[in-house]
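note to self — DONT lose this again. spent like an hour looking for the file last time. sequence + predicted structure for the chain T wanted, 214 res
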Amino acid sequence: MSRPAGRRSPGRPAGASGDRTRERILAVALETFANDGLAGASVRGIAHKARIRVSTLYHYFESKEALYHEVQSHVQEQIRELVVSALGRDLDFRDLTREVVGGLFDLFCEQRAYLQLGHRSAVDGGPPLAAQGQLAERWLGFVEGTLGPAERRGDIEAISPVHFMVTIDALVHWHITNEPLYKQLLGRGFEDAELREQTREHVIGVALRTLGLD
């Protein structure tokens, strides 16, 4: 849904009030896109939930697609910061793997909308999927650049970067998504700190074994 004709180009009002409004729009949009997908979400509905006029939303974002892209960029920036922070700590590969995989588990466990947004994006497909593909290619290049030197040094076993990236994504996402199954089988979910830690360690352990580090 593009900006209606005649509306002025999006901008960013100066001051703390403008920043708060923008952050509120993004928070509402994240929940809306996670629940309804891009096609099912409406600018009017997002504006209503954010307690602003539709024209105000268009002042910040020129279209629904632009808002969706900004939400996705925000999620990816959170992940990037987590990974870059771990890389900056000069850890050996085993500890680096533990730090990154455990950090991803914690992030998605605390931000369930991030999980749901990813699922909706994959299921819905459509034009945004092209941007997701470009993002996946960038992450793949990053994984290749990290695994390659470690493999050549003999620190890890040879493994397809694609398979490793998809495996970690699947492990983290589906263990958290399937929390209801844990509740059904064990009578408790991740509100139980012990179960959450056991699951976190299981996911990390699978990642380490995949690399031949455990």
